[in-house]
Amino acid sequence: MIADPSPWLAVFGRAHPVLLHAPLGLLPALFVFEFGPVLLRREVARGSVLTLSVLTALTGAAAAASGFVLGGEQDGSELLTQHKTTGLVLGGLCLLLPLLALRHGRGPFRVLLLLALGVMVPAGHLGGSITHGRDFLFEPLHTKSTTAAAAAPAQPNALPPAAVGTAAPTFVTDVLPILERVCTSCHNPDKVKGELLLTTREGLDRGGENGAVVVPGKPDDSPLLTRCLLPADHDDHMPPDGKKQPTAEELQTLRQWIAAGAR
Ligand code: HEC
């Protein structure tokens, strides 16, 4: 792992999210070129397969190497370690592809190709979970049911909206869903930005690298809220400019919750 990479090496590391797409496209293409002719009872175009294999090996190695540089820049987490391991295995498998593609017998090459495709799925998914949050892919399936539940009070025989919000907001029912919507993509166990964990009550109580983020009874002294109220172009504004922002109503809920003692 590289602790303090030179600036150009760091740039190479940050190119990882771009570089990784080459093997991601090339491996399925290889699959089509190798197995397509088998289905159609044609001869495999060995020249094309070899060319694609060389490209996959080069870009696969570049993706793995840049990932390693990038990973060295960040604090390790379980997710990162898993992604690194699968990524490294995938890079190694890609490097072997041209060697086996050169052989006359197709068996070993086909096994290797299927193996690489098999490793590509978890490696890619783990990587995506690091950048977008662990539950990014399947989140719409959960939120669908929560929005359905949230829409329920609009039914004629339900409580009028005015009744909602009269009681002090509570952490689990009111605050946590807001944090999960706009904060936990960066403040989660895999990506503890500012050393602040917002996925659990304990994390919130522990605070961030600069200490407590909630001062019970004092919303205007609580960075959890004040950072959101800073102008959007302020360096300390949360969530950072360009990311999903809380609504005025959500900020009001946070304010009420802190004012009422943050329980
Ligand atoms: C896109 C990523 C991202 C999102 C989304 C995000 N944050 Fe942050 N947050 C950061 C980073 C990076 C830092 C550390 C740098 C800094 O202090 O500005 C940080 C730091 C903080 C801190 C300071 C912790 C300390 O002790 O220094 C607070 C408080 C905070 N965030 C609250 C929030 C809240 C509340 C939300 C949701 C409304 C949120 N953040 C959403 C990236 C994010």
Care to describe what's here?
It is a single chain. This protein is mostly helical and 263 residues long. It has two domains: 7-132; 166-259, no CATH class. 61% of the residues lie in helices and 2% in strands. It is built from eleven helices and two strands; from the N terminus they run ααααααααββααα. It has helices spanning 7-14, 16-19, 21-39, 46-73, 78-102, 107-132, 139-151, 171-182, 201-206, 223-229, 248-259; strands spanning 187-188, 191-192. Strands 1-2 form a two-stranded antiparallel ribbon. A hairpin with a 2-residue loop joins β1 (187-188) and β2. The radius of gyration is 25 Å and the shape is elongated. Mean pLDDT is 85; it is low at 146-165. It binds heme C (HEC). The site of heme C has 23 residues, from α10.
Any chance you could write out the topology, listing elements then pairs?
Blueprint: H1 7-14, H2 16-19, H3 21-39, H4 46-73, H5 78-102, H6 107-132, H7 139-151, H8 171-182, E1 187-188, E2 191-192, H9 201-206, H10 223-229, H11 248-259
Antiparallel strand pairs: 1-2
Bound molecules: heme C.
What is this entry, summarized?
With 263 residues, the protein is an all-alpha fold.
Percent strand: under 5%
- Specify the number of helices: 11
Let me know the average pLDDT. Answer: 85
Report the sheet with the most strands, covering strand number, pairing sense and barrel closure.
2 strands, antiparallel
What is the 3D shape? elongated
The figure for the number of domains is 2
Q: Give the end-to-end Cα distance, rounded to a whole number of Å.
A: 42 Å
Structural class: mainly alpha
- For the secondary structure, the number of strands is 2
Instruction: Name the helix and strand elements from N-terminus to C-terminus, one letter apiece.
Output: HHHHHHHHEEHHH
Main-sheet strand order equals: 1-2
Could you state the oligomeric state of the chains shown? single chain
Helical content stands at 55-70%
Unreliable residue runs: 146-165
